[in-house]
C-alpha cells in the first residue's frame, strides 16, 4: 500500500527518516511552512527558509525515492510581529508560484489575536487570487473557539470549504468541520490524546469522506512513520483496505490536486534515483559512501 503524508516538516528530519518512510510505502510528502521553534527576526530568514522548501528539500527527498511538495505562508505564531509580517507578505506571491507549491499555509490562529486575524484574512484573499488550496493550522489552546472562528472568516470571504484543509482536529472540532464541508485532517502525535488508536475510533464514527491522516512530524516529539503505522493499526482493527487508502492517500491527493502541482504520475513514474546527482554542488552522501543508482523504471510503484 502506498501512502501520502500531507503534513510533515522534513527540514527537521534526517535522511534515515526518508529511508524508513520510503521502505514503509510513503511515496509523497507535503511540507507546510511553519515556525522553527523560535521567532525569526528578519525577512531574509523567511526567504532562505522558503527557498529551502522549494529547493534543496525537494532534491533531498528525491534522493530517497520520495516526492516532496510544500505549502507556503506566514504562520500564525509569527504573524504578531507586524513589521516583519508585512515584509513576509510582500514575498509570498513569488514563492506561491514556484514548482511544487500545492497550497498556501499553514495559516490560522495561535493566540487568536487581532494581528493573527489580519494576516489570516490577507492570506486567504491571496489564496483566492493565485487559485491555490488552503491549509489551516488550528490553535492548540482554545481549539474549538479558534477552529470555529477560522471557518467563520473563510465563509465571510466567500471561499468554498472544499478548497480548504483544516488540520490538527480532535473530537470537539471534527464534526463541525465535516458538517460545514471542509477537509478534516488529523495529526497523529505519539503518546497524546490524538494517537493512532483514537484516530481509528474517529474513522469508525465519522467514516472516510474528507478525512485525512498526517504525522506533522517536526523537531519535537513526533513520528515520521505515523501514517503507515496508523494504517496498520486500522487494518488490525477491521477497517477495510479501501477505507485505509482513502484517508492515507486518496483524500490528500484529491484535496491538493487542484493546485495543478500535486500529480500522481509524479511518483508512479518517477525519475530513477541517482545519488551521484548534486544540488548546487552538494550531495546527500558523505565521504566514502556508495551512491544509490537505480535503473530506469526500477522504482515504478504499482498500487
UniProtKB/TrEMBL annotation:
Assigned keywords, A-Z: Hydrolase, Metal-binding
Domain of life assignment: Bacteria
InterPro entries in alphabetical order: Metal_Hydrolase, TatD-like, UCP005295
Pfam families (UniProt xref): TatD_DNase
Annotated GO MF terms: hydrolase activity, acting on ester bonds; metal ion binding
Similarity comment text for this entry: Belongs to the metallo-dependent hydrolases superfamily.
PANTHER family, A to Z: HYDROLASE TATD
Name of this chain's protein: Hydrolase TatD
Amino acid at each position: 500500500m502506498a501512502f501520502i503524508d500531507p503534513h510533515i516538516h522534513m527540514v527537521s528530519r534526517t535522511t534515515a527518516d526518508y529511508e524508513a518512510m520510503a521502505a514503509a510505502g510513503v511515496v509523497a510528502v507535503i511540507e507546510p511552512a511553519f515556525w522553527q521553534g523560535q521567532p525569526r527576526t528578519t525577512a531574509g530568514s523567511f526567504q532562505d527558509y522558503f527557498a529551502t522548501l522549494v529547493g534543496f528539500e525537494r532534491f533531498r527527498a528525491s534522493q530517497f525515492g520520495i516526492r516532496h511538495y510544500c505549502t507556503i505562508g506566514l504562520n500564525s505564531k509569527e504573524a504578531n510581529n507586524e513589521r516583519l509580517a508585512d515584509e513576509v507578505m510582500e514575498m509570498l506571491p513569488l514563492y506561491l508560484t514556484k514548482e511544487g507549491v500545492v497550497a498556501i499555509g499553514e495559516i490560522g490562529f495561535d493566540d487568536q489575536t487581532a494581528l493573527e486575524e489580519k494576516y489570516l484574512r490577507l492570506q486567504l484573499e491571496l489564496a483566492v487570487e493565485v487559485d491555490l488550496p488552503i491549509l489551516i493550522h488550528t490553535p492548540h489552546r482554545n481549539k474549538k473557539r479558534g477552529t470555529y472562528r477560522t471557518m467563520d472568516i473563510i465563509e465571510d470571504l466567500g471561499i468554498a470549504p472544499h478548497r480548504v484543509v483544516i488540520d490538527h482536529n480532535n473530537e470537539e472540532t471534527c464534526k463541525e468541520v465535516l458538517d460545514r464541508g471542509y477537509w478534516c485532517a488529523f495529526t497523529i502525535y505519539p503518546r497524546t490524546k490524538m494517537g493512532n488508536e483514537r484516530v481509528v475510533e474517529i474513522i469508525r464514527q465519522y467514516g472516510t469522506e474528507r478525512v485525512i491522516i498526517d504525522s506533522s512530524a517536526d523537531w519535537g516529539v513526533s513520528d515520521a512513520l505515523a501514517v503507515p503505522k496508523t494504517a496498520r493499526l486500522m487494518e488490525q482493527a477491521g477497517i477495510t483496505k479501501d477505507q485505509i487508502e482513502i484517508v492515507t492517500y486518496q483524500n490528500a491527493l484529491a484535496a491538493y490536486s487542484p493546485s495543478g502541482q500535486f500529480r500522481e504520475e509524479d511518483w508512479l513514474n518517477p525519475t530513477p534515483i541517482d545519488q551521484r546527482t548534486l544540488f548546487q554542488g552538494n550531495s546527500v552522501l558523505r565521504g566514502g559512501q556508495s551512491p544509490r543508482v537505480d535503473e530506469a523504471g526500477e522504482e515504478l510503484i504499482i498500487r
